[in-house]
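User: I want to check something. If I give you two sequences, will you return the structure for each one separately, not as a complex?

Assistant: Yes, each is folded on its own. Here is the first sequence with its structure:
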Amino acid sequence: MKIKLVAILILCIANSFLAQEKVSLQDIILKYESLEYNDVISLTANILKTGTLNKNELIEVYTMKAVSHFALSQEVESKNCFIEILKLDKNFNPDPVKVSPKIILFFNDVKEEFLKTNAQVEKQTEPEKDSPKDSILAVNKNLLFKEKTEFKNYLMKSIILPGWGHLSHNGSSVKGWLLTSASILNTGALIYFIIDADKKEKDYLNQSDEVQIKSMYNKFNTSFKTRNVLITSLVAIWLYAQADLLLFSFDDMNADINLSLPGNTTSEIPLQLNFNLKF
């Protein structure tokens, strides 16, 4: 007896599943045309679970389900069905022959809200693209950074040896060769006369012969004055080299660099950016 009851229960369950699986799109259409909206909602829910419908069939099923919900004053459920349709096809519009104007107005409100929300989401998730202005600014900033680094190197060389920075910047610059040559010759002569003045000072101080003292003093004094002149001339060459490098050879790096870009088509005011480079 128990076995029979179990068998009957299994058959009932199997028949229930078979009945669900046998739900066809045509059955739903017949119920829809008969205005049996509760049955339409139930059948569409079952057929959607099967996952066997193509895009056009899904749109048709969701449309019948949305209209049925709206007819039963279930606007939230109807709205959700229309949203599912728009997810499949955002350009979808109900057939005015088959759908009442009132429902079409409701659908249009849903569609407008959906498209607006969807556009905002896409804008938030869309990666930002560099505008032409940003690209130009990035390139110019990189160039400025490179020029600034090179200039610092030239300036450091010029501090060590006046004229060296000019040669590094301009290659075979006549001014660079003149300054470098003058610096080397002046430095060499200065080293010689520093040693010479020190030696002659010692000779003068160690001299005991009154006749030779005056002669030794004159030699020391001449060497000492020459040393001082060479110090002054080397300082002058050094200062001139730095000033020339800062004020003339790189006047574009010391002045404000103005980068003008055209504004948008509605504005006549150009976009101006100023970079002040300090060293």
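And separately, the second sequence with its own structure:
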Amino acid sequence: MNLRHVELFRLIMKFGTLTQAGEIMAISQPAASKMLFQLERSTGITLFQRTKGRLKPTRDGELFFAEVQRTWESIERLERMSKDISQMRFGRLNLGVKPALAGTLMPPLIARFRRKHENTTISLHSRSSERVIEWAIAGQIDLGITNTSTPHPNVACRVMARIPGVCILPEQHRLAGRSDVRPEDLDGEDYVSIGAIERSTIIEKAFDAAGVRLRIMIEAPMAHLTCALVASGAGVAIVDEINARAFHGRGLVVKPFVPEISFPVWHLRPLSLSSSSLAEALTRDLEDEFERLGYRAEA
């Protein structure tokens, strides 16, 4: 069955004459008559009664038209969807993001992204970097944002940002008036540690170099919980600047930490999946946001 023949039939039913249907399709009346004859022959259905040069749909023709309409609506939906996909207005994104950014940077960024791509469905999964890496290896996410990379051949990794580490203190802490905080200033202080190994290693190196031993009294799995604990007076901590600023004015004082340390933000792309224009667009938005904040890593 030729789809163009079906289109002619649909137009005849819609406008009532073979002549008008032919004009819309930019074909002559003899060519249109031939196409209609070929459609009836291929379907085995008499679609019209010919009476004095006029076409009147048969009962079988009306039944066939009802099915043609349903099919044509599906084709039109496919055409709209293909256009939306090509223009990045429709699609689905699965994101795996480390907790330190999933609850701070990502919500407003995703909201802005959705306003530009309103028919895009986004699933935001916040898990440890290790779990996000597992998802990327398995091709279960379109992109991942983690603390660390993986050497696995199925994943392309690159550092997209470096977020400064800062010292956070309760508002009434003895160091709250200082311009900056150094490892020796925290000697003997109750310290709240974040559980991520790679983050702890970066911090511990700075303290080891100063000859100061951290007095870890509390361990928390996520940066925002660490901030909440410190704001409640449970101790002091070193966290990324994004999470610290989110708690500023909520019982927390944020101070630069000397020597400067930073926490890398890794971008993971599963190589087992075809490149997604939406994932690439979201990556660009992430890079622009890190650029605006002054955190973007040099290429």
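Because they were folded independently, the notes below concern the second chain alone. The radius of gyration is 32 Å. The mean pLDDT is 90.
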